[in-house]
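Box S1 | Example of a co-folding query
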Amino acid sequence: MPQFLLYLFAKIKKIILHFKKQKKMKEIMTVYYMEAKSARVGGRKVAWITSGGPVEPLIAMDVIPVYPENHGAMIGASKMGTGLCETAESMGYSSDLCSYARSDIACATVNGGPIGGLPRPDMLVCCNNICGTVLKWYEIQARYFNIPLFILDTPFCHVGFAEEARRYVRRQLDDYIVFLEQVCGRKMDHDRMKEVGILSLEGQRLWQAVLDTTTHSPAPMSAFDAFYHLALIVTLRGTQEVIDYYTQLLEKMKDRVAKGIGAVPNEKYRLLWDNIPIWHRTRWLSQKFASHDACLVADTYTSAWCGTMKYIDENRFFDSMAEAYTRIYLNIGVDEMARTVLGMVDKYKVDGIVMHSNRSCKPYSFGQYDIQKIVERERGIPSLMIEADMVDERSFSESQVATRIDAFMEMIKQKRG
Ligand code: SF4
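Box S1 (continued) | Returned holo structure for iron/sulfur cluster
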């Protein structure tokens, strides 16, 4: 067959695969939001929960979990963030407040955003293992909707994990169950909770396995693909749906590895992404790096949803949640964060790090300059700092970022000779 026909065939196959992938995820998420929006008809309850919160008890109680942060990502990706942030600012909220919080607070009052607002919650579950912003944000929403709020307080782990912290969080998990039983008007089925725990852990293992396929060069997927596929491990962790989805995805990735198909054709440089994606520029960034034959093969963000598996005991899932939910990436000291990043640098064999200094997310961005120095000192690889915001486009200058990426890639190319 002539070369150009082979090329055309490969291109068409790639487009079909792409659409199949899109449809599957889109179908699942559409059904999920439709179910949540019509929860009352089916006699089910809806809980809004923070992205780092323990979702498994909700699943075990047949409550539909909804994530305002996930919604924030959708708002950012559909470029509706700036308008909603401006609405929040006109309501009196500071432009320094996290743009997920600003867009969610504004969205609730106008039912805006790409899906016409989130389903109305019956309760709120807030865990401060990701930041302190969520405490005030969820209090505002609890007042606005006049619904009960449960706060799980997870102490910051500067080093290690103290026994007192374990007891403190573990006791609150019991309170969490009492809270759910009161709001739902029925008892928790502890056997069901165990089943959900097993499914949750299995989902995390599969997600990690999917991410690990990029240790292969060329990487069969990029961090930009991981940002897309992440939605299920966040929203439906603890369900069979997650297992089925990631089992299929893992097979696909293994197949690409076997055939030597890379996310970036001619992958020459491998990079690590740090911080939340710049949702309104993922496509642009992906193309920009690909134009330098660079693939972002891993990231600290999507790996956070399987990063604490080592603390989970499958046979005592509920008890071990205390440690697993407290020691997540955003709730540990900078030294431990740097160790995680160094581990990823080695595992994925990257040539450099791209750090998104995110105006919105202070806990993610504060330690970045220290981590940058540690990585440069320990591994001698360069890093690039991009100043932006995950949702609010006003903090992004395309020309400035393009120039910095070009300069950074020049440095990496020279280093590689
Ligand atoms: S400040 Fe960061 S961790 Fe907190 S809600 Fe915003 S994006 Fe999430």
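Residues 4-21 have pLDDT under 50 and may be disordered. The pocket of iron/sulfur cluster is lined by residues 69, 98, 100, 130-131, 133-134, 276, 360-361, 363-364 (CB under 6 Å).
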